[in-house]
Design a protein that fits this description.
Largest sheet of chain B: 10 strands, mixed
CATH topology of chain A: MetI-like fold
CATH class of chain A: Mainly Alpha
Distance between the termini of chain A: 32 Å
Shape of chain B: globular
CATH superfamily of chain A: MetI-like
CATH topology of the largest domain in chain B: Rossmann fold
CATH architecture of the largest domain in chain B: 3-Layer(aba) Sandwich
Number of helices of chain B: 11
Oligomer: heterodimer
Helix content of chain A: over 70%
Order of helices and strands of chain B: EEEHEEEHHHHEHEHEEHHEEHH
Number of strands of chain A: 0
Structural class of chain A: mainly alpha
Distance between the termini of chain B: 59 Å
Bound molecules: adenosine-5'-diphosphate, magnesium ion
């Protein structure tokens, strides 16, 4: 009970203080750009719970899932090949580093030219932003596999498929997961940005729309919703990570 | 089926291995030539760095020899052979930490294409033979070094190889565990009737386990001497090791190895090279 109290205090103290400070600041000032949390909360249900869940939140999250999923498949697939084949690695690694260094949002106008302004464009933008951290981490993970583990697979004559599924992939998983975590953050950014350029629905589209229509509390409610979605997605990610990497945590604890 | 099986299940012919090229070349194996008969328990003993691991990697198809061939059951080894299981020197790294002990043992059986029921049965039997019936659901990193080594052995025997190859398998476990594992291997061998090639740097171990001991020189390796142990087939840590034959065998192996190192074994002092080594050394002395 006491520990629960301590946890609640440390988790919520700063947010509560900030919200109170924000409320006081906005109630006592007359700028309309920073509405009080009370005003934002008041518009929140009408803005997001009447049709927007299926009309905006769901399309946004589906595009994020599709883009992130594509990036995961491509990143892990290509990353494994490149990690296993040295000539390929020497050829491609500088290019990967270059692509990784380009800020993904600048690719939106280019991808728009090629892929139009539909869902395909948005998914491509998200996938393109997400793929590099996953790819580069997969290459590093595959390269770092213990030779003894590969020798064992060879001496027991594992087929290519068994070797990939049961040895290479799990061995590289800690690194792949680290890359995927970076990619998820990038993916959320790309999801919003792609919707700000050309869209008819989605969270990013709505925030821009509210801003143009001068619906300031509604606009803020969208920003807060994005923050909450980010926290939620991270929590889901954490759960998956814990399940995938129980062995990794245990192994490291055992080695100490 | 093949006539060549009768005179030896495993034949090593003119094996040589040089790592690297040019000025950086390291000749690990100079010339190895011997034959192992089906069902034999052969120990290979040699100092560290002699090229034992290199030899086993060539033998098990993990490494291509520079010259010569290894012939297993009449067929030249060019890739890891189906009838052979290898317990690598780094056994704990050879177990996959993301799988349970049972899954580790099962994986090679999946590669062979056994049905699930057969796999489960073999895993249970193998765990039982190495005394780890209760540890199937554990992860390798939850076990002690000796237990991990048992898992590696269980994985090898569940595979039912005709030839079992082990590279210094007990070098990293404590003395008591080591004695237990030595007896375990002897018993498994007589139960399964397989051929065992056991590499070690421990002289006592080689004499205790083997029916034949091949003594290797330092790199570039060749076989210095072959010793038949002729100890009773039923071996026991207390009785066998106390036999006078055991003492004379270990002395014989020890002398050979020390001779190879150029050391006088009575004073344990390095000798001037020309007294111990013969060919062409007198030129250096004069
Ligand atoms: N991959 C390698 N590249 C170059 N030299 C090696 C390699 N592996 C082993 N050697 C060398 O070959 C010799 C024999 O090594 P090794 O077979 O590991 O001996 P052992 O197992 O008897 O201790 C050593 O001198 C070692 O340094
Ligand atoms: Mg070795």
């Amino acid at each position: 009970m006491k520990r629960l109290g301590a946890w609640a205090f440390f988790t919520f103290a700063v947010p509560v203080v900030l919200i109170i400070a924000w409320t006081i600041a906005s109630e006592t000032s007359d700028t309309i750009y920073f509405p009080s949390p009370i005003a934002i909360l008041a518009v929140f249900p009408d803005t997001w719970f009447s049709g927007a869940i299926s009309g905006d939140i769901f399309p946004s999250l589906s595009r994020l899932a599709a883009g992130f999923g594509l990036a995961l498949i491509a990143g892990v697939g290509v990353g494994t090949l490149v990690g296993m084949l040295k000539p390929l690695r020497l050829l491609l690694e500088p290019i990967f580093e270059l692509f990784r260094a380009v800020p993904p949002p600048v690719l939106v106008p280019i991808i728009m030219l090629v892929a139009g302004i539909g869902d395909g464009m948005k998914i491509a933008v998200i996938a393109f932003g997400c793929v590099w951290p996953i790819l580069i981490n997969t290459v590093a993970g595959v390269r770092g596999i213990d030779e003894v583990q590969l020798d064992t697979a060879a001496s027991y004559r594992f087929s290519g498929r068994l070797r990939f599924v049961s040895v290479i992939l799990p061995a590289a998983t800690p690194q792949i997961v680290a890359g995927a975590r970076q990619s998820l953050a990038i993916g959320i950014i790309m999801m919003v940005i792609s919707e700000m350029f050309a869209a008819t629905n989605g969270l990013g589209f709505n925030i821009i729309q509210f801003q143009r229509l001068f619906l300031i509390p509604e606009m803020w409610s969208g920003i807060i919703l994005l923050g909450l979605l980010g926290v939620g997605l991270n929590a889901v990610f954490k759960i998956i990570e814990n399940r995938l990497l129980t062995w990794h945590v245990g192994l490291h604890a055992a080695e100490k | 089926m093949n006539q060549t099986h009768d005179d030896g299940i495993l034949k090593v012919r003119g094996l040589r291995k040089v790592y690297g090229e040019g000025s950086k070349a390291v000749e690990a194996i100079g010339h190895l030539e011997f034959t192992i008969r089906a069902g034999e328990f052969v120990c290979i003993v040699g100092p560290s760095g002699a090229g034992k691991t290199t030899f086993l990697r060539c033998l098990s198809g993990l490494l291509k020899p520079t010259e010569g061939t290894v012939i297993l059951e009449g067929r030249e080894v060019t890739e890891p052979p189906a009838d052979m299981a290898v317990v690598l020197q780094e056994y704990s790294r050879s177990l996959y930490p993301w799988m349970t002990v049972a899954a580790n043992i099962e994986l090679p059986l999946k590669a062979v294409g056994l049905t699930k029921t057969k796999r489960k049965k073999r895993v249970t039997e193998a765990l039982h033979s190495v005394g780890l019936s209760d540890s199937g659901k554990s992860y390798p990193w939850q076990l002690s070094g000796g237990m991990q080594q048992r898992v590696a052995i269980a994985r090898a025997i569940a595979y039912r190889p005709r030839v079992l190859v082990m590279d210094e398998p007990f070098a990293a476990v404590d003395a008591q565990t080591r004695a237990d594992l030595e007896d375990l291997i002897r018993n498994l061998r007589s139960e399964l009737g397989i051929t065992v090639l056991f590499v070690t740097h421990d002289i006592d171990e080689s004499v205790y386990l083997g029916e034949r001991v091949l003594i290797l020189s330092s790199a570039p390796t060749c076989v210095l001497k072959e010793v038949k142990t002729n100890l009773p087939a039923e071996r026991s840590q207390l009785i066998t090791r106390a036999l006078p034959e055991f003492a004379s065998l270990r002395t014989e192996v020890y002398e050979t190895i020390q001779y190879a190192k150029g050391v006088n074994y009575y004073t344990a002092q390095p000798q001037p090279e020309n007294e111990n080594r013969d060919e062409g050394r007198d030129k250096v002395a004069t």
